[in-house]
Amino acid sequence: MTRRNIMIALGALVAGALAVVYAERDTDATRRISAEMAGDVTITGAAPSASQAGNPKVLYDFNALPDPVKRTLRQIAGAAESGDIEAMRPVLESNELKPMVTTSFVDDPIAFWKKASADGKGRDVLAAMLNVLSTGYVRVGQGKDEIYVWPYFAETDLAKLTPAQEVELYRIVPPQLALPMKRSGKYSYYRLGVSPTGVWQYFLQ
Question: Fewest beta carbons within 10 Å, which of 75, 87, 162, 194?
């Protein structure tokens, strides 16, 4: 799948969410997504491949995801695109359980994200959500333990990345953080997991 198709697929998810939740808002993001879907924006290059031994298969086709997963992604992306982290609260409340945002239980993820954010409003956290969702994903585990994980770097040996994958890593992780990760081979930035039933399991570093 080409990167153009990847971005169009994610754009369709975000655009669908915005159409429902923010139908009357004409934002730059929705105009950009519309342009991509209409073919007015050219995005070239092929999606990086993770075919190295020991790495899980990287997937880019958002339309191949189970419908409950796509529905959850639309909700997350729509709230994140709004720029208001409080818009994420209905998404959290509609989830079967509060997603993990750190290694210990947090009763109010919104308050946690605000406190952890650079601006105190959580906007960089929302940006991180959209950034990780713009990459490929992997499906790991089986049965009740199966989960879809973004970005695929969370389940990939970073010491074995191709040049194209390194570029994709730099798109979501600042270089000063990415370089130590590459040396250790382990990803330690934001990751997001959703179960096949659409339950948002976690978004944490």
Answer: 162
Would you state the pLDDT for residue 162? 93
Q: What is the DSSP letter of 143?
A: G
Which residues 6+ apart lie within 8 Å of 101 measured at CB? Answer: 109, 112, 113, 202, 203, 204
Cα angle 189, 74, 105 (rounded to 5 degrees) comes to 45
Q: pLDDT tens digits, residue range 19-49?
A: 333 233 333 333 333 333 333 333 333 344 4
Domain segments of the chain: what residues?
Answer: 3-204
Residue 99: count of CB within 10 angstroms of its CB: 20
C-beta atoms surrounding 192 within 10 Å: 23
Residues with Cβ within 8 Å of residue 105, at least 6 apart in sequence:
none
- Tell me how far apart the terminal alpha carbons of the chain are, to the nearest angstrom: 28
Query: CA-to-CA distance for 165 and 163, rounded, in angstroms?
Result: 5
Per-residue pLDDT tens digits for 124-148:
999 999 999 999 999 999 888 899 9
